[in-house]
Amino acid sequence: MSEVVTWRRKAGVLTITVDRPQARNAMNADVWRLIMRALDEAERDPEIRALIVTGAGGNFVAGADIKEFVALDGPQAEARSRAIAGHYDRIRRSPKPSVAAIDGWCLGAGFELALACDIRIASDSAKLGYPEIKLGIFPGTGGTVLLQKLIGAAAAREFALLGEPIAATRAHALGVVSQIVPAAELAAAAEGVAAKFAALSPFALAQAKSVLDAMLDADMAAAREREYAAYRACFESIDRVEGVAAFIEKRKARFVGR
């Protein structure tokens, strides 16, 4: 088993942990491949009744690994967007209910990963958000549309347009997370919710999830097409090149609006 993602079984619950502490658990191709493998394993095994998704080393996931997409052109960025949105959708639409246990940074791709889960529990030190706008792009792998579906237009704009990390208390007030606990109690809190799922009818849970997902998916396809096209346009912009360069060079970006 790779060290960048681990998973373990306990009492009908599969806990999937992103473990790249040197990169604050940033998502890369290996992380995605192994998360999908863990999900495959869970869905094949009737003994697994629920999932927990979390991160190691005091962070959930601090975003995508920028090294993997810094050189993409527009068509490549759109293809990547579609592929990764499919991964998030697989988690969201899985018949196995899932809990995101969020500590530390939960940004960008990590925030989208948390949103793909059914229940989100945060530590009192968690910071959540979409900082992509500061790179001259936006969360274009499904996250913009999904966030608005989950918490409404006004709250989604606070995340997507400002790009500032939001404290767990604010995220709770906006309905993004359902519970805040001290960091030392986070694992136990997530396990408690997962245990409740594990004690319920897997069939009834799967049916209920299918209905909830159908309601979320209504009109989502058209919005996603607009999202993918806009994400591609961002990757073809001068501002995207400048934003990413400024991030890598640790300086303030000088955006020109095209």
Short key terms for the protein model shown above:
2-enoyl-CoA Hydratase, Chain A, domain 1, 258 residues, alpha/beta, three-stranded mixed sheet, 10 helices, 49% helix, globular
CATH architecture: Alpha-Beta Complex
**Main sheet attributes: strand count, strand direction, barrel closure:** 6 strands, mixed
Average predicted confidence as pLDDT: 93
Low-confidence stretches: none
Amount of beta strand: 15-25%
Radius of gyration: 18 Å
Order of secondary-structure elements: EEHEHEEHEEHHEHEHHHH
Q: What is the helical fraction, as a range of percent?
A: 40-55%
Annotated CATH homologous superfamily: 2-enoyl-CoA Hydratase, Chain A, domain 1
First-residue to last-residue Cα separation: 44 Å
Strand order of the largest sheet: 1-2-3-4-6-9
Total E-strand runs: 9
Shape summary: globular
Quaternary structure of the protein: single chain
Number of helices: 10
* CATH domain class: Alpha Beta
> Can you tell me the CATH topology?
2-enoyl-CoA Hydratase, Chain A, domain 1
- Number of structural domains: 1
State the secondary-structure class.
Answer: alpha/beta
